[in-house]
Amino acid sequence: MAMLRAGLLLLMLSNPVCWASPGAPSWSAERAADLDAEEQLELGLSHVAEEQYEDARLWFESAAAEGESRAKLNLGWLHEEGLLGRVDGRAAIDWYTQGVLAGESAYAIKLAWIHLQGRLVQSDLTTAEGWFRHAIEAGHAEGQLALGSVVLAEVMGGDLDRIDEALALFEGALADGLMLGSYYLGRIYREGLGVPPDHGLALCYYEVGAEAGLADVQWRLGEMYAEGAGTEQDLVQAAKWAYLAAANGASESLALIQEVEGQLDADEIAQARRLAWVAAGGAVSEQD
């Protein structure tokens, strides 16, 4: 939802339209005949800004008839939000589908979540997975993370045959620069989700995500150092990662900090804090 609203706003800011009269003109066949599809889209967006949704619908439908893919997405949004009088799930999905097939392939991920979560239509895992794959084939790495999380849920539900698929999706996402893939891969190997536990491999994946600044990965890496899982126990490193995780908003790390600090002396705590400061980009003097 927020993504669509942001898309509307960005379109309006990047394509400002000035009209001589106050407000955008209502749709008519005569006016539409003098405008191209993008100009009609802009008029629809102007009506959205004025909360004149029926006028917006007419301009969007006119633009959509001429092949404007973004107008199709905006029509889906109007129906999804019930801005034309009621929520119309079927119409929303139909327009979103037309928009995606017309080239707005990133929105295939939205369609996938709608079908998976059972919003607007009955939940349908097969259709959802199909839309995730559509996004992936179009080059959207986020689809690999999303589908990977769905497949992993199936694995955790007992379908162990799909673990190789989940691993490939998360590794692909990580290779494409989505560091969150390291969280899922680390968790799979640490907890033995569909594979034998491999704490050394889990540690490697967690280090990738922790270095990238992922708070949830940082505190999990801290736990592994505290436990000596996949590595020798190192409470200073455990505290370092716990401090970083806390600074990045992971409240789960507070219990780890309390546990680890109870086993460190003042010099070791100071060292861990200094390491965390440096890892966060802090400057170090020669005295340090």
Structure description:
With 288 residues, this protein is mainly alpha-helical. Among the domains are: 1-103, Serine Threonine Protein Phosphatase 5, Tetratricopeptide repeat (Alpha Horseshoe); 233-281, no CATH class. Helix content is 68%, strand content 0%. It contains 16 helices and no strands. The protein has helices spanning 2-14, 29-33, 37-49, 53-65, 69-81, 89-101, 108-117, 125-137, 142-156, 163-175, 180-191, 199-211, 215-227, 235-247, 253-261, 266-279. Helix 11 (180-191) packs antiparallel against helix 12 (199-211). The radius of gyration is 25 Å and the shape is elongated. It starts with a helix and ends in a 9-residue tail after the last helix.
CATH-derived topology of the domain at 1-103: Serine Threonine Protein Phosphatase 5, Tetratricopeptide repeat
* Sheet/helix structural class: mainly alpha
Shape: elongated
User: How many distinct beta strands?
Assistant: 0
Low-confidence stretches: 1-21, 284-288
User: Which CATH class of the domain at 1-103?
Assistant: Mainly Alpha
Q: What count of helical segments does DSSP give? A: 16
- What's the main sheet like? none
Name given to the CATH architecture of the domain at 1-103: Alpha Horseshoe
